[in-house]
Structure formats: structure tokens, C-alpha cells
Amino acid sequence: MKVEFAPLNIPLARRLQTAAVLQWVLSFLLLAQVCIGIIVILIIHNYWFLYVPYMTWLYFDWRTPEQGGRRSNWVRSWTVWRYFKDYFPIHLIKTWDLDPSHNYIFGFHPHGVLVAGAFGNFCTNYSDFEQLFPGFTAYLHVLPFWFRCPLFREYLMSSGPVSVSKKSVSHVLSKEGGGNISVIVLGGAEESLDAHPGKFTLFIRQRKGFVKIALTHGASLVPVFSFGENELFKQVNNPEGSWLRTVQERLQKIMGFALPLFHARGIFQYNFGLMPYRKPIHTVGKTTAFSL
């Protein structure tokens, strides 16, 4: 196979876009393990004056991801996220005005491999969300597992994600006066195992919990589809019934998250690596919201 290398005269802006997405991919794959490693090293070397205060504070802060999180406008405004958005690029398209006096659930599909569209649109200040949905605050709900990792949880919450637990969704949707949006990737980890280019397999038939929560809090449902999400990566072939799919599904049940074996392009060449392809993502809300 002939390797196709990136040309040397690529504009600086495109190189910065690549660097921005690289740090995002590495953060998703490695940062949690690095943070846990830091805590372990502090304990092994008995730096108690560092880890004891943090662990004490963590004990009292444990429920924050279920209580609206702790977003940082400063982190969400980092210039790196503008380059991240422009790499693909990511677009948010509104087809209907929403009443800011109500709360909503955005049912997001598809999951894709790393949910780049949901992150770019709802966890940074460089999407058009504030202009398209004035008066709203969006909360991207992710697996509770990520908030159990010391230090990493602080970085994750700073961008705005919160837990996808029932308590967390209820907290967001119970805001009096409206203006909150729960963004739930309904297919979850199971759907990521079917994220192949040119294919959309959605897992929604058994996903009914979000409807019950919406009914409880009087929230409206807004179907959201992210076109291009499945085009960013390729996966090792894992059809239903294959040994690989069986292992992946068993690991998902044990750990709570899936492990898709994905690949795409590299940093300096286009044939192999873990960098997503430069494919446009268009995240579109349906023309109307369903009131329950």
C-alpha cells in the first residue's frame, strides 16, 4: 500500500486544526488513565499534603456531576476549540424556534465513535448554539464512569458535560422558568459499535427512560440528527455474532462503555492512524418539538 503523505505547504490554520483535534482524541483515549496514574504516584510517594486535601474535597463534591456540573466559560472559550470545530468543520442547524420558557430533551443520533458533533456543538463556545438558541443552556449527558476518574472529572466538567444518570437529567429538566436543554445521545455505547461509514444503525427501540423523564418534568422532545458523524472513522469489521462483536458486547456490559476498534488517518499522512477524517458534520434539529 502506497502511503499518501500530507503536503509540506499546508496552511498554518489547518495544522493548528489538526493539533486541536489530536489533543482532543488523546484526551479521550489517555487523559483519564494519566490522571489516575498521577494520583497513584502521589500516594506511592506519600505526597499526602497533595492527595489528602483533594480526596477530601472529592468526597464532598462527588454528586456535582448529577447537580448541573461545574462548567467554565473560560475553558469553553479556549481558542483550541475554534480550531477543533473548523477541522471537520462542525455546523449546527436550527429548523424551528424553541420557547426558552420551557425545558427540552435533545435526542441525539447517531453516537458515532467519539461523538464529535455533540461535543463541538454543545461543549464549546464556538458553535452557533448561543445565536440559534438564545436564552438556553445545553447540558451534554455522558456516562457516569467518566466522573469517577479523579482530576479528569474536573477537566471534563469544565466543558459542560454532566452525568447521564436519572438524577442528573431530572436536575437539568426541573429548572423553573425553563431554558435548559438535556442533550442525550440515546444510542449510547451500544450504538458506537455500529458506527461505520455509509451506515446508520440506531438503537432507540429499547430507549424509553428519557421519555418517562420528559413526561415527569413536562419537557419537550426534540429529535436531533448529526449527519457525517459515522464518516469520521472506520472500524474493524464486527458484524453481529462475530467473535469480536461478542467480546465487545461483553466488555460493554462489564465496564459500561464500548471499545470500538477504530482507525482513520494519521497526523502527517492520510492512510492510517487515529485522527478522524476531515468530513463535515451537520447537526440538525427536527422541524418541531414533541410536547408530552
Automatic annotation (TrEMBL):
It is found in: Endoplasmic reticulum membrane. InterPro entries: DAGAT. One of its GO terms (molecular function) is diacylglycerol O-acyltransferase activity. It is a multi-pass membrane protein. It holds the Pfam family DAGAT. One of its GO terms (biological process) is diacylglycerol biosynthetic process. Belongs to the diacylglycerol acyltransferase family. This is 2-acylglycerol O-acyltransferase 1. It comes from Puma concolor. The gene is MOGAT1.
